[in-house]
Amino acid sequence: MQSPRFIGHEIFRNSTYGRWHPLRVPRVSTVMDLSRALGWLPPEQFITSPRAKPAALINWHTPEYVSALQRVEADQFHTDEDQRRYDIGSVTNPVFAEIFSRPATAAGGSIRAGELLREGGVIYNPAGGTHHGMPDRANGFCYLNDPVLAMLSLRHQGVRRIAYIDIDAHHPDGVEVGFGGDPECLMISVHEARLWPRSGPIENDAGGNALNLPVPRGFNDSEMAFTRDELILPKVAAFQPDVIVLLCGADGLEEDPLSHMALSNNAQLDVLRGLMDMAPRLLVLGGGGYNPWSVGRLWTQVWGVLNGQNAPEVLPEAAKDILRGLRFDGNRRGKNPPEHWFTTLRDAPREGAVRDEIRQGVRILAARPLPG
User: What counts of helices (H) and strands (E) characterise the chain?
Assistant: First the structure.
Protein backbone atom coordinates (compact mmCIF):
# COMPACT_ATOMS: atom_id res chain seq x y z
CA MET A 1 0.00 0.00 0.00
CA GLN A 2 1.15 3.53 -0.74
CA SER A 3 2.66 5.50 2.15
CA PRO A 4 0.42 8.04 3.90
CA ARG A 5 0.22 11.38 2.16
CA PHE A 6 0.28 14.85 3.70
CA ILE A 7 -1.67 17.67 2.04
CA GLY A 8 -0.42 21.16 2.82
CA HIS A 9 0.23 24.59 1.33
CA GLU A 10 2.32 27.67 1.99
CA ILE A 11 -0.78 29.89 2.06
CA PHE A 12 -1.22 28.87 5.70
CA ARG A 13 2.20 30.17 6.75
CA ASN A 14 1.43 33.87 6.96
CA SER A 15 -2.33 34.06 6.54
CA THR A 16 -4.11 35.32 9.63
CA TYR A 17 -7.67 36.21 10.55
CA GLY A 18 -6.45 39.34 12.27
CA ARG A 19 -4.23 40.50 15.11
CA TRP A 20 -6.57 39.50 17.95
CA HIS A 21 -8.57 36.69 16.38
CA PRO A 22 -8.01 33.18 17.80
CA LEU A 23 -6.82 32.11 14.35
CA ARG A 24 -3.99 34.60 14.38
CA VAL A 25 -1.61 31.76 15.32
CA PRO A 26 0.33 29.58 12.85
CA ARG A 27 -0.78 25.96 12.75
CA VAL A 28 -0.34 24.06 9.47
CA SER A 29 3.04 25.63 8.72
CA THR A 30 4.29 24.60 12.17
CA VAL A 31 3.27 20.99 11.51
CA MET A 32 4.98 21.03 8.12
CA ASP A 33 8.16 22.52 9.56
CA LEU A 34 8.33 20.19 12.56
CA SER A 35 7.62 17.12 10.44
CA ARG A 36 10.45 18.05 8.09
CA ALA A 37 12.82 18.84 10.95
CA LEU A 38 12.16 15.34 12.31
CA GLY A 39 12.71 13.72 8.90
CA TRP A 40 9.10 12.56 8.74
CA LEU A 41 7.97 14.39 5.61
CA PRO A 42 9.94 13.43 2.48
CA PRO A 43 8.91 15.17 -0.75
CA GLU A 44 7.27 12.05 -2.18
CA GLN A 45 4.68 12.04 0.64
CA PHE A 46 3.77 15.72 0.35
CA ILE A 47 0.97 16.99 -1.87
CA THR A 48 0.47 20.70 -2.47
CA SER A 49 -3.18 21.39 -1.86
CA PRO A 50 -5.15 22.61 -4.87
CA ARG A 51 -7.50 25.53 -4.44
CA ALA A 52 -11.08 24.38 -4.89
CA LYS A 53 -12.87 26.02 -7.76
CA PRO A 54 -16.36 27.47 -7.27
CA ALA A 55 -17.85 24.65 -9.33
CA ALA A 56 -16.58 22.16 -6.74
CA LEU A 57 -17.66 24.25 -3.76
CA ILE A 58 -21.25 24.58 -4.96
CA ASN A 59 -21.67 20.84 -4.62
CA TRP A 60 -22.79 21.89 -1.13
CA HIS A 61 -22.43 25.66 -0.71
CA THR A 62 -24.77 28.04 -2.50
CA PRO A 63 -23.44 29.84 -5.59
CA GLU A 64 -24.45 33.22 -4.13
CA TYR A 65 -22.42 32.64 -0.96
CA VAL A 66 -19.33 31.43 -2.83
CA SER A 67 -19.53 34.46 -5.11
CA ALA A 68 -19.80 36.75 -2.11
CA LEU A 69 -16.60 35.30 -0.60
CA GLN A 70 -14.76 35.83 -3.88
CA ARG A 71 -16.01 39.39 -4.20
CA VAL A 72 -15.14 40.32 -0.61
CA GLU A 73 -11.62 38.93 -1.03
CA ALA A 74 -11.13 40.96 -4.22
CA ASP A 75 -12.51 44.18 -2.71
CA GLN A 76 -11.39 43.66 0.90
CA PHE A 77 -14.70 45.20 1.82
CA HIS A 78 -18.00 43.77 3.00
CA THR A 79 -21.44 45.32 2.91
CA ASP A 80 -24.05 45.31 5.65
CA GLU A 81 -25.93 42.81 3.51
CA ASP A 82 -22.88 40.50 3.44
CA GLN A 83 -22.81 40.46 7.22
CA ARG A 84 -26.55 40.08 7.64
CA ARG A 85 -26.97 37.37 5.03
CA TYR A 86 -23.66 35.49 5.17
CA ASP A 87 -22.07 36.57 8.48
CA ILE A 88 -19.09 37.81 6.49
CA GLY A 89 -17.34 40.63 8.32
CA SER A 90 -18.50 39.76 11.82
CA VAL A 91 -16.10 39.61 14.77
CA THR A 92 -16.11 35.83 14.50
CA ASN A 93 -15.76 35.64 10.72
CA PRO A 94 -13.78 38.74 9.77
CA VAL A 95 -12.67 39.99 6.38
CA PHE A 96 -8.99 39.21 5.83
CA ALA A 97 -6.67 39.07 2.84
CA GLU A 98 -7.30 35.41 1.94
CA ILE A 99 -10.93 35.15 3.03
CA PHE A 100 -11.75 33.01 -0.02
CA SER A 101 -8.35 31.62 -1.02
CA ARG A 102 -7.42 30.16 2.37
CA PRO A 103 -10.64 28.19 3.03
CA ALA A 104 -10.83 27.21 -0.64
CA THR A 105 -7.32 25.76 -0.36
CA ALA A 106 -8.23 23.77 2.75
CA ALA A 107 -11.39 22.57 0.99
CA GLY A 108 -9.45 21.76 -2.16
CA GLY A 109 -7.17 19.52 -0.12
CA SER A 110 -10.10 17.64 1.37
CA ILE A 111 -11.82 17.24 -2.00
CA ARG A 112 -8.57 15.96 -3.49
CA ALA A 113 -8.21 13.56 -0.57
CA GLY A 114 -11.57 12.05 -1.46
CA GLU A 115 -10.35 11.47 -5.00
CA LEU A 116 -7.03 9.97 -3.92
CA LEU A 117 -8.69 7.59 -1.47
CA ARG A 118 -10.75 5.89 -4.15
CA GLU A 119 -8.52 2.82 -4.06
CA GLY A 120 -7.69 3.05 -0.36
CA GLY A 121 -4.91 4.52 1.76
CA VAL A 122 -4.26 7.20 4.37
CA ILE A 123 -4.31 10.98 3.88
CA TYR A 124 -3.69 13.79 6.35
CA ASN A 125 -4.97 17.29 5.67
CA PRO A 126 -4.29 19.31 8.85
CA ALA A 127 -5.69 22.46 7.23
CA GLY A 128 -9.05 20.70 7.01
CA GLY A 129 -11.63 20.34 9.73
CA THR A 130 -13.74 23.48 9.22
CA HIS A 131 -16.79 21.66 10.50
CA HIS A 132 -19.01 24.64 11.35
CA GLY A 133 -19.38 26.10 7.85
CA MET A 134 -22.96 26.22 6.59
CA PRO A 135 -24.22 25.97 3.00
CA ASP A 136 -25.00 29.68 2.77
CA ARG A 137 -22.98 31.39 5.49
CA ALA A 138 -19.78 31.50 7.50
CA ASN A 139 -20.00 30.08 11.00
CA GLY A 140 -17.55 29.70 13.85
CA PHE A 141 -14.34 30.73 12.02
CA CYS A 142 -15.35 28.40 9.14
CA TYR A 143 -16.14 29.95 5.77
CA LEU A 144 -16.47 26.62 3.96
CA ASN A 145 -17.15 23.12 5.25
CA ASP A 146 -14.33 20.94 3.98
CA PRO A 147 -15.36 17.76 5.90
CA VAL A 148 -18.72 17.78 4.11
CA LEU A 149 -16.99 18.43 0.78
CA ALA A 150 -14.52 15.60 1.47
CA MET A 151 -17.34 13.19 2.23
CA LEU A 152 -19.21 14.20 -0.92
CA SER A 153 -15.98 13.71 -2.86
CA LEU A 154 -15.63 10.22 -1.40
CA ARG A 155 -19.20 9.43 -2.39
CA HIS A 156 -18.49 10.66 -5.91
CA GLN A 157 -15.66 8.11 -6.05
CA GLY A 158 -18.04 5.32 -5.09
CA VAL A 159 -17.12 5.13 -1.41
CA ARG A 160 -20.41 4.62 0.41
CA ARG A 161 -20.16 3.84 4.13
CA ILE A 162 -18.56 6.74 5.99
CA ALA A 163 -17.73 6.84 9.71
CA TYR A 164 -17.17 10.46 10.72
CA ILE A 165 -15.52 10.77 14.13
CA ASP A 166 -15.10 14.26 15.62
CA ILE A 167 -13.07 14.79 18.81
CA ASP A 168 -12.87 18.56 18.53
CA ALA A 169 -14.01 20.46 21.63
CA HIS A 170 -16.89 21.98 19.63
CA HIS A 171 -19.88 20.17 18.16
CA PRO A 172 -19.72 19.76 14.32
CA ASP A 173 -23.02 21.47 13.61
CA GLY A 174 -22.27 22.03 9.91
CA VAL A 175 -21.46 18.37 9.30
CA GLU A 176 -24.74 17.36 10.93
CA VAL A 177 -26.55 19.70 8.55
CA GLY A 178 -24.76 18.05 5.65
CA PHE A 179 -25.14 14.39 6.62
CA GLY A 180 -27.87 14.22 9.25
CA GLY A 181 -30.22 11.34 8.47
CA ASP A 182 -27.86 9.67 5.97
CA PRO A 183 -28.17 5.91 6.66
CA GLU A 184 -24.73 5.19 5.21
CA CYS A 185 -22.94 7.72 7.43
CA LEU A 186 -22.23 7.14 11.11
CA MET A 187 -21.38 10.37 12.95
CA ILE A 188 -19.84 10.35 16.44
CA SER A 189 -18.94 13.61 18.18
CA VAL A 190 -17.30 14.02 21.59
CA HIS A 191 -17.50 17.72 22.52
CA GLU A 192 -17.66 19.98 25.54
CA ALA A 193 -21.19 20.45 26.87
CA ARG A 194 -22.62 23.97 26.62
CA LEU A 195 -19.62 25.23 24.67
CA TRP A 196 -20.36 27.21 21.49
CA PRO A 197 -22.28 26.40 19.26
CA ARG A 198 -24.29 24.80 22.09
CA SER A 199 -25.67 22.17 19.73
CA GLY A 200 -25.26 18.41 19.82
CA PRO A 201 -27.13 17.37 22.96
CA ILE A 202 -27.13 13.65 23.64
CA GLU A 203 -30.86 13.53 22.82
CA ASN A 204 -30.31 14.76 19.25
CA ASP A 205 -29.64 11.92 16.83
CA ALA A 206 -29.90 14.10 13.67
CA GLY A 207 -32.13 11.60 11.92
CA GLY A 208 -30.81 8.44 13.52
CA ASN A 209 -27.17 8.50 12.47
CA ALA A 210 -25.52 10.90 14.94
CA LEU A 211 -24.14 9.90 18.32
CA ASN A 212 -23.45 13.08 20.28
CA LEU A 213 -21.61 12.89 23.59
CA PRO A 214 -21.42 16.31 25.29
CA VAL A 215 -18.88 16.00 28.11
CA PRO A 216 -18.34 18.13 31.22
CA ARG A 217 -15.49 20.53 31.86
CA GLY A 218 -12.29 18.85 32.96
CA PHE A 219 -12.77 15.87 30.61
CA ASN A 220 -9.57 13.87 31.14
CA ASP A 221 -7.49 11.18 29.43
CA SER A 222 -9.10 8.33 31.37
CA GLU A 223 -12.56 9.53 30.34
CA MET A 224 -11.54 9.76 26.70
CA ALA A 225 -10.06 6.25 26.89
CA PHE A 226 -13.34 4.96 28.36
CA THR A 227 -15.31 6.71 25.61
CA ARG A 228 -12.97 5.35 22.95
CA ASP A 229 -13.13 1.73 24.15
CA GLU A 230 -16.82 1.58 25.10
CA LEU A 231 -18.37 3.75 22.38
CA ILE A 232 -16.21 4.90 19.48
CA LEU A 233 -14.35 1.73 18.57
CA PRO A 234 -17.24 -0.72 19.07
CA LYS A 235 -19.66 1.42 17.04
CA VAL A 236 -17.18 1.89 14.19
CA ALA A 237 -16.37 -1.84 14.17
CA ALA A 238 -20.05 -2.76 14.01
CA PHE A 239 -20.73 -0.20 11.26
CA GLN A 240 -17.96 -1.62 9.02
CA PRO A 241 -17.18 1.61 7.19
CA ASP A 242 -15.51 1.92 3.83
CA VAL A 243 -13.74 5.04 5.11
CA ILE A 244 -13.10 6.73 8.43
CA VAL A 245 -12.90 10.51 8.56
CA LEU A 246 -11.33 11.63 11.84
CA LEU A 247 -11.43 15.28 12.82
CA CYS A 248 -8.65 15.56 15.39
CA GLY A 249 -9.11 19.00 16.91
CA ALA A 250 -6.50 20.25 19.36
CA ASP A 251 -8.83 22.52 21.28
CA GLY A 252 -9.70 19.82 23.81
CA LEU A 253 -6.17 19.99 25.19
CA GLU A 254 -5.82 21.51 28.63
CA GLU A 255 -3.77 24.46 27.35
CA ASP A 256 -6.31 25.63 24.77
CA PRO A 257 -7.79 29.08 25.48
CA LEU A 258 -11.26 28.43 24.04
CA SER A 259 -12.37 25.30 25.89
CA HIS A 260 -12.31 23.87 29.40
CA MET A 261 -11.30 20.28 28.78
CA ALA A 262 -8.24 18.70 30.40
CA LEU A 263 -6.84 16.29 27.85
CA SER A 264 -3.20 15.61 27.07
CA ASN A 265 -2.27 15.03 23.46
CA ASN A 266 -1.93 11.32 24.25
CA ALA A 267 -5.72 11.02 24.38
CA GLN A 268 -6.32 12.11 20.78
CA LEU A 269 -3.39 10.04 19.54
CA ASP A 270 -4.78 6.93 21.21
CA VAL A 271 -8.14 7.46 19.48
CA LEU A 272 -6.27 7.68 16.18
CA ARG A 273 -4.31 4.51 16.92
CA GLY A 274 -7.51 2.66 17.70
CA LEU A 275 -9.15 3.68 14.43
CA MET A 276 -6.23 3.23 12.04
CA ASP A 277 -6.87 -0.36 10.95
CA MET A 278 -10.66 -0.34 11.05
CA ALA A 279 -11.31 0.66 7.43
CA PRO A 280 -9.44 0.49 4.12
CA ARG A 281 -9.40 4.27 3.91
CA LEU A 282 -8.55 6.91 6.51
CA LEU A 283 -8.73 10.69 6.19
CA VAL A 284 -7.47 12.72 9.14
CA LEU A 285 -8.34 16.42 9.35
CA GLY A 286 -7.21 19.12 11.77
CA GLY A 287 -10.01 21.21 13.23
CA GLY A 288 -9.88 23.57 16.19
CA GLY A 289 -6.87 24.49 18.28
CA TYR A 290 -5.79 27.98 19.29
CA ASN A 291 -2.61 27.57 21.32
CA PRO A 292 0.18 27.42 18.73
CA TRP A 293 2.36 25.06 20.77
CA SER A 294 -0.31 22.54 21.68
CA VAL A 295 -1.65 22.47 18.12
CA GLY A 296 1.77 22.04 16.54
CA ARG A 297 2.87 19.39 19.00
CA LEU A 298 -0.31 17.30 18.65
CA TRP A 299 -0.77 17.56 14.90
CA THR A 300 2.88 16.75 14.21
CA GLN A 301 2.52 13.60 16.29
CA VAL A 302 -0.62 12.70 14.32
CA TRP A 303 1.53 12.59 11.20
CA GLY A 304 4.13 10.56 13.07
CA VAL A 305 1.55 7.98 14.20
CA LEU A 306 0.23 7.64 10.65
CA ASN A 307 3.78 6.78 9.55
CA GLY A 308 4.71 4.53 12.45
CA GLN A 309 7.05 7.12 13.93
CA ASN A 310 7.44 7.75 17.65
CA ALA A 311 8.27 11.26 18.80
CA PRO A 312 11.69 11.42 20.44
CA GLU A 313 11.90 12.09 24.15
CA VAL A 314 13.93 15.22 23.39
CA LEU A 315 13.56 17.05 20.10
CA PRO A 316 16.51 17.84 17.84
CA GLU A 317 17.70 21.44 17.92
CA ALA A 318 16.05 22.31 14.60
CA ALA A 319 12.65 21.30 15.95
CA LYS A 320 13.24 23.13 19.25
CA ASP A 321 14.06 26.28 17.29
CA ILE A 322 10.73 26.05 15.43
CA LEU A 323 8.80 25.84 18.69
CA ARG A 324 10.83 28.59 20.35
CA GLY A 325 10.05 30.82 17.38
CA LEU A 326 6.28 30.69 17.94
CA ARG A 327 4.43 33.60 19.52
CA PHE A 328 1.11 33.76 21.33
CA ASP A 329 0.60 37.48 21.85
CA GLY A 330 -2.45 38.62 23.74
CA ASN A 331 -2.91 35.48 25.81
CA ARG A 332 -1.59 34.72 29.28
CA ARG A 333 -0.46 31.25 28.16
CA GLY A 334 1.94 32.89 25.75
CA LYS A 335 3.75 34.95 28.38
CA ASN A 336 5.54 32.17 30.23
CA PRO A 337 5.30 28.96 28.21
CA PRO A 338 6.72 25.92 30.03
CA GLU A 339 10.00 24.49 28.83
CA HIS A 340 8.52 21.17 27.67
CA TRP A 341 6.54 23.00 24.99
CA PHE A 342 9.90 23.63 23.31
CA THR A 343 11.76 20.39 23.96
CA THR A 344 9.29 17.54 23.40
CA LEU A 345 6.09 16.78 21.52
CA ARG A 346 4.77 14.53 24.26
CA ASP A 347 2.49 15.64 27.07
CA ALA A 348 2.47 14.04 30.47
CA PRO A 349 -0.73 11.94 30.81
CA ARG A 350 -3.69 13.67 32.41
CA GLU A 351 -5.58 10.78 33.91
CA GLY A 352 -8.31 10.80 36.52
CA ALA A 353 -11.61 9.34 37.59
CA VAL A 354 -14.23 8.47 35.00
CA ARG A 355 -17.26 10.40 36.20
CA ASP A 356 -20.71 8.87 36.38
CA GLU A 357 -22.15 11.27 33.83
CA ILE A 358 -19.58 10.07 31.28
CA ARG A 359 -20.43 6.45 31.99
CA GLN A 360 -24.14 7.13 31.73
CA GLY A 361 -23.82 9.06 28.46
CA VAL A 362 -21.70 6.35 26.90
CA ARG A 363 -24.18 3.68 27.96
CA ILE A 364 -27.07 5.59 26.39
CA LEU A 365 -25.28 6.00 23.07
CA ALA A 366 -23.85 2.48 23.04
CA ALA A 367 -27.41 1.14 23.24
CA ARG A 368 -28.61 3.06 20.17
CA PRO A 369 -28.98 1.11 16.93
CA LEU A 370 -26.65 1.84 14.05
CA PRO A 371 -27.97 3.85 11.08
CA GLY A 372 -29.37 1.90 8.18
Answer: 15, 8
